[in-house]
Each structure stands twice: as structure tokens, then as C-alpha cells.
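Workshop exercise sheet. Pairs work together: one partner reads the sequence aloud, the other fills in the structure field after running the prediction. Swap roles for the next sheet.
Pair: D.N. / O.F.
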Amino acid sequence: MNDVSFAAAVGQWYDANARDLPWRGPHRSPWGVLVSEIMLQQTPVSRVLPAWGEWMARWPTPAALAADSPGEAVRAWGRLGYPRRALRLHAAAVAIVEQHGGSVPSAYDDLLALPGVGTYTAAAVAAFGFGAHHAVLDTNVRRVLARVFDATADAPGSAPTASELRRARALIPPGDAAHHAVAVMELGALICTARTPRCTECPVVASCRWWQAGRPPAQRRRAVQRYAGTDRQVRGRLLAVLRDAEGSVARNELDAVWDDDVQRERALAGLLADGLVQATDTGAYRLPA
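Structure field:
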């Protein structure tokens, strides 16, 4: 399969099967794209949709978020998980206001310099928010390309290789970076999934080398991270108490959420070190002011 036919087939499939996601719609804003990309890191679309809508209604611009406290960003983050992302998004909003006049920058290097923005997110915002010619390589895209062109079940390593980037760039139709990127991404999310791919419904199955090779399994299975009983669970419970409180929370209220004193102390210390929680002069705790 050549680059043109692959892009055309996936693009036509996407036009007929795209999910209605507000951060991909015709009225999307670069800020909405940035918020969605930060929220979607390690979090499924079904959980992000309501949170994104509430966030954008409250803070429709970077300036609106920057004018509020980082603690309110953590509170609004709710149970999306990995709440440091809320602090980074708040810090990014402040940087956008202070360094870019309140408008999300369009240049890749300027995006990459924002707090919490890595190479993937910078490329995604540049492509989806501004239509720039960038390869957007998330896990789904990398898996699709690895299967179709390399006959492997998954892409190698945790970060894209130079050869992956070159191939992904070569596949982008001129002037159609955003549409192409989201089309391949959706194909990986809905059809070419990690565990139960629906190959017979795939628009490029006839040319997929992985299908032709008999769908060989991945050489290494990725371990599924457990949540129950981990420090992450303890941190989540401590933050839940603080999010629900009007102001500061006494120490005994935090002590009540987890029986293991050592683990609870470790989780609380981590929250303090990450800036997600602040200690008051009275010995109580609160979200960052």
C-alpha cells in the first residue's frame, strides 16, 4: 500500500465513522485542543468528555484559568487521575498569558516550551489547533502504522523512533495534517485496538502486513498497572477530602481515609512535594492557593 492510498482509505473511513468529539469539531479552539490533550493523557475519552465540557465552560480561555488559583484547577480535575496534570495546565495558562498575550502559540517550539507539554502534545496542538504539518504519533497511531507497514503487533519502545517519525510525516497529505492525524488515531482507537482488533472492519486490511502474516502477537506483553492498595489510591483519597472541603482540612480528617500510617504519610508527603497540597500555619492542609 502506498502513502496516498493509505491516507485516502483511512480518511474516507473516518469521515463515515468519526466520533463526535468537541475538541476535534469544526469550532474547536487551540485552547480547547490543549486542554483535551492534557486530559487525554492516560485517561479514556469517556471520562474526559464531561470533565472537558465543565472545564471549558468555567475557563474558556487561558486567561480565565490563569486568573484562578491552581487549587481550583486541582479541584475541578476531580477523578481524572494524575492530578499533577491540572497544575501543569494551570502553569501553561499562566505562561500563555505572560509570554504570548493570552493566545495559545502556534509555533511548535513555543508550544513545547509550555509547562506540561511534550513532543506529542506540541505536535497535536500545532496540527489540530492550527493545521500545521506535523506528525501526531500517539499510541494508537503508532500501533496502526506498525501493523500495516511492519507486520508487528505494536510499535517498539515507549517513544517514537526517528524512522517512525519519517514515515508518519511522509504519509501526511498536503494541507490535510489535522484530518489525517485524527483519522489514523480514530482507526487505532475504534478498530485497530490493542487487545481485540476488528480487522475485518478495517479499511486497509487488504494491505495490512500484520494481517497477512497471521496477526503475530507482540513479543512482550505490557504489564497492567494495578491501582488498589497503591500510593496512587491513597493520594486520590486524600485529595478527594481536600477537593470536597470549603477551606482547609484538619489532620485527623486526612488520617481517617487510610489505616496504614506509613503509606498515608508517604502519600501525603508526595502530595506536598508535588505542590498539590499545602500545609497551613495551623497544621491543617488545603489545596494550593
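Discussion prompt: The radius of gyration is 21 Å. What would you look at next?
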